[in-house]
Design brief:
The protein is mainly alpha-helical and 78 residues long. The protein has a single domain, classed as Ribosomal protein L20, C-terminal domain (c-terminal domain of poly(a) binding protein, Orthogonal Bundle), CATH 1.10.1900. Helix content is 85%, strand content 0%. The protein has 4 helices and no strands. Helix 1 crosses helix 3 (53-62) and helix 3 (53-62) crosses helix 4 (64-77). The longest helix has 31 residues, at 2-32. It is elongated, with a radius of gyration of 16 Å. The protein starts with a helix and ends with a helix. Belongs to the bacterial ribosomal protein bL20 family.
Length: 78
């Protein structure tokens, strides 16, 4: 019975943990380009670029060139 309780709790915690990880990765990549996480995300919304945190973190972690081009687009517009 106890294992089921931990599994139930941790399925919910996993969602929070991954969101934290995505934000950390996006923040690190944005700061390398001279932007904070909040400025980066706000600029994306203002430009109408609708990407979720999971996709942005994937770009920041695995395809830095594309992420950097996204940051440059933000800098040019802002």
């Amino acid at each position: 019975m106890k294992a089921g309780q931990w599994a139930y709790r941790d399925r919910r915690a996993k969602k929070r943990d991954f969101r934290k990880l995505w934000i950390i990765r996006i923040n690190a990549a944005a700061r390398e380009n001279g932007l904070s996480y909040s400025v980066f995300m706000n600029s994306l919304k203002k430009l109408g670029i609708h990407m979720d945190r999971k996709s942005l973190a994937e770009l920041a972690f695995n395809d830095r060139e594309v992420f950097n081009s996204l940051v440059e687009k933000i800098k040019v517009a802002g």
